Amino acid sequence: MKILAVGKDIKPMDFETNPEKMQKTLNDEFIHFWEGYKSDFVREFYFRMDNKGAVLILEADSVEEAELEINKLPLVKEGYIEFELIPLGYFKPFENLIPKE
């Protein structure tokens, strides 16, 4: 199943108070994200041009499975970002164009 994941920033990343911790979190995020990409869970990824976060195309058996996996991302676990997960399918309105027998 293809799933659109729309990211949203929840709180600002705090590089001033604890830069080492924030850098470690970002490094862990990249590693976890890259593993998801290599395993075909993350199929495509984009950054929104309005600077409001990331948009991902995921592949999972269900929205629930995708939610479990996306919630493992360090930035999600630490409350910096969240994702809205939207299941995608074929374009159903095309069926209205096919004559019924």
What report would you give on this structure?
This is Superoxide dismutase. This protein has 101 residues and is of the alpha+beta class. It has a single domain, classed as 2-Layer Sandwich (Alpha-Beta Plaits). Helices cover 32% and strands 28% of the residues. The protein has three helices and four strands, in the order βαββααβ. The protein has helices spanning 19-38, 63-70, 74-77; strands at 2-9, 42-47, 54-59, 81-88. Strands 2-3-1-4 form a four-stranded antiparallel sheet. β2 and β3 (54-59) form a beta hairpin. The longest helix is centred in the first third of the chain and has 20 residues, at 19-38. It is elongated, with a radius of gyration of 17 Å. The mean pLDDT is 94.
Q: Give the helix level as a range of percent.
A: 25-40%
Write down the secondary-structure element order: EHEEHHE
User: Proportion of β residues?
Assistant: 25-35%
Shape: elongated
Helix run count: 3
Number of domains: 1
Distance between the termini: 30 Å
Radius of gyration: 17 Å
What structural category characterises the helix and strand content?
alpha+beta
Q: What is the makeup of the main sheet? A: 4 strands, antiparallel
**From the 3D coordinates, which CATH architecture would you assign?**
2-Layer Sandwich
Q: What CATH first level would be assigned?
A: Alpha Beta
Poorly predicted spans: none
Looking at CATH, which topology would you report? Alpha-Beta Plaits
Strand order in the largest sheet: 2-3-1-4
Q: CATH H-level name... which superfamily?
A: Dimeric alpha+beta barrel
Extended strand count? 4
**Chain-averaged pLDDT:** 94
Protein name: Superoxide dismutase
Organism: Methanococcus voltae PS
